[in-house]
Amino acid sequence: MEPRTTNTRGPFRCGFFMAFSPDGQTIASGSWDKTIKLWDTKTGMELQALEGHSNWISSVAFSPDRQTIASGSVDKTIKLWDTKTGMELQTLEGHSDMVLSVAFSPDRQTIASGSGDNTIKLWDAKTGTELQTLKGHSASVGSVAFYPDGQTLASGSGDNTIKLWDAETGTELQTLKGHSLSVSSVMNEPNFNSHSQISLSNAWVALGGENLLWLPAEYRHFACHAVKDATLALGYMNGRVSIIGFHTP
């Protein structure tokens, strides 16, 4: 199984966060230069540069229909963007600290945001109206993700816990404890297939638990990464983005 690698380079640092579009055709990367860049995963070509935040980008997420991107920033705001035109659609304000994570609900109607102010906020994706604030974590909320049914929201925090919430009522359903360090990522993949799962371990990229690609030393110190099906994107401090695609049976 031969991996296909594409390298591309932007004029600034890769930044803090990357996300694949639902169809896997585009990557969004947020940067310390205050921009979001969109990349074609097949050609490595830069498609758009979205500018508007006043501080560096800490999170990005595509809507399920790929038409909208939400970006969270150290400037305490969430911005919504049209992926076709690159136009800023609206700005969501309400957090008192940096926005560390953003996620769309499966029906595209709601946006969740996690913040350094220890809260999660739910927003109406069409109007930008704040719907409710979920409180319960005792440290910053670094990750949020909706369950595939859209009824439950998961949040990971610097307080070393994962909390599950009723996305409609805002009620805390459960607290999952056991981590000895902060929880920086929670995700729910409706099409998860263990045989095509990509993982990173030291110098190796593995697919389905089998080491397939050895990374030279200069490729191991990536600043951010994103996975979509059998495609892996690695972002580096010098602005390079490496896209590695595996052909699966």
From TrEMBL:
Belongs to the WD repeat MDV1/CAF4 family. Involved in mitochondrial fission. Acts as an adapter protein required to form mitochondrial fission complexes. Formation of these complexes is required to promote constriction and fission of the mitochondrial compartment at a late step in mitochondrial division. InterPro entries: WD40/YVTN_repeat-like_dom_sf (IPR015943), WD40_PAC1 (IPR020472), WD40_repeat_CS (IPR019775), WD40_repeat_dom_sf (IPR036322), WD40_rpt (IPR001680). Gene3D superfamilies: YVTN repeat-like/Quinoprotein amine dehydrogenase (2.130.10.10). It is a peripheral membrane protein. PANTHER family: WD REPEAT DOMAIN 5B, WD40 REPEAT PROTEIN. It is found in: Mitochondrion outer membrane. This is Mitochondrial division protein 1. Its main location: mitochondrion. Signal peptide: none annotated. SUPFAM superfamilies: WD40 repeat-like. It holds the Pfam family WD40. The keyword Transmembrane does not apply. The keyword Repeat applies. GO terms for cellular component: mitochondrial outer membrane; nucleus; transferase complex. It comes from Aspergillus pseudotamarii. Keywords: Repeat, WD repeat. WD repeats lie at residues 18-49, 50-91, 92-133, 134-175. PROSITE patterns: WD_REPEATS_1, WD_REPEATS_2, WD_REPEATS_REGION.
